[in-house]
């Protein structure tokens, strides 16, 4: 059974204070690992897909990395508008379903 | 990115009534759509996989007679919560894959159901 664990559950940062969110996973053959951003009362918004260990992707202040056991979402010099819940999910080669982690609630204070 | 639209975004109903939620892929065709449920401050829980032209596949513990799913076309899937009760109050989110080979999903805006 695929499992995804995200840490920390909640993270408070000052504006400009860089940090990383962790996503640990176990999956029977990784098809892809996905990062989503979710604002309160909204559906998840797609950020990144990572397919193989060593892969990195960047978008503005966000950078996602992947190893065989975990993924990190690095946030550089965050701004208050980066406050949201960040969800990590994996899709195995066995099917098309995503297994989600519990998410990390990020709060960036000015 | 691809656009998935859900309607209604909010619905309040009395206990015992049925509520239909629509999920549309606006700029692509989706043979498979997924329905999730999300409780406050919790992650998404997959309810069922909706397949165009065939019966939906439900996850363990999800009552198929309670949550009716119809995927009548390549751009529309509907979730009907039948005889809704207060415990069915939740945030329901649909998603669709533009390219099933990538596993990448695009999500709708979600529908907040409140059953009084």
Any overview of this molecule?
The complex is a heterodimer of chains A (110) and B (116). Chain A is mainly β and 110 residues long. Helix content of chain A is 0%, strand content 60%. In chain A, a hairpin with a 5-residue loop joins strand 9 and strand 10. The model of chain A has no long low-confidence stretch (mean pLDDT 94). With 116 residues, chain B is mainly β. Chain B contains no helices and eleven strands. In chain B, strands 2, 4, 5, 6, 9, 10 and 11 form a seven-stranded mixed sheet that branches. Chain B is globular and about 40 Å long. In chain B, 37% of the residues are buried. The chains are: A mainly beta (110), B mainly beta (116). At the A-B interface, strand 4 and strand 5 of A face strand 9 and strand 10 of B.
Supply Rg of chain B.
Answer: 13 Å
Percent strand of chain A:
over 45%
Q: Tell me about the biggest sheet of chain B?
A: 7 strands, mixed
Overall 3D form of chain A = globular
* Unreliable spans of chain A: none
Give the helices and strands of chain A as they follow along the chain. EEEEEEEEEEE
- Unreliable stretches of chain B (pLDDT < 50, length at least 5) are none
Name the quaternary structure: heterodimer
Share of helical residues of chain A: under 10%
Distance between the termini of chain A: 41 Å
Overall structural class of chain A, as computed from helix and strand content, comes to mainly beta
SSE pattern of chain B: EEEEEEEEEEE
- Biggest β-sheet strands, sense, barrel of chain A: 6 strands, mixed
**Helix/strand structural class of chain B:** mainly beta
Q: How many runs of DSSP E, i.e. beta strands of chain A?
A: 11
Question: What radius of gyration of chain A results from the CA coordinates?
Answer: 13 Å
Mean pLDDT of chain A: 94
Percent range for helical residues of chain B?
A: under 10%
Largest interface: A-B, 21 and 26 residues
Work out the helix count of chain B: 0
The total of helices of chain A stands at 0
């Amino acid at each position: 059974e695929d499992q995804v664990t995200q840490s920390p559950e909640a993270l408070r940062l000052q504006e400009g204070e860089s940090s990383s969110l962790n996503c640990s996973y176990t999956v029977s053959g990784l098809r892809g690992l996905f990062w989503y951003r979710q604002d309160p009362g909204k559906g998840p918004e797609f950020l990144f897909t990572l397919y193989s260990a060593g892969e990195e992707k960047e978008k503005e202040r966000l950078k996602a990395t992947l190893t065989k056991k975990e993924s990190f979402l690095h946030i550089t010099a965050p701004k208050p508008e980066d406050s949201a819940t960040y969800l990590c999910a994996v899709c195995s080669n066995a099917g098309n379903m995503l297994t989600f982690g519990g998410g990390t609630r990020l709060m960036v204070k000015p | 990115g691809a656009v998935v639209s859900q309607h209604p975004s909010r619905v309040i109903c009395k206990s015992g009534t049925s509520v239909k939620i629509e999920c549309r892929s606006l700029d692509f065709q989706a043979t498979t759509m997924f329905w999730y449920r999300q409780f406050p401050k919790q992650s998404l829980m997959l309810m069922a996989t909706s397949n165009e032209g065939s019966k939906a596949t439900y996850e363990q513990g999800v009552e198929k007679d309670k949550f009716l799913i119809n995927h009548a076309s390549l751009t529309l899937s509907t979730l009907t919560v039948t005889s809704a009760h207060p415990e069915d109050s939740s945030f329901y989110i649909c998603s669709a894959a533009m390219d099933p080979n990538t596993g990448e999903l695009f999500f709708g805006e979600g529908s907040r159901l409140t059953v009084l």
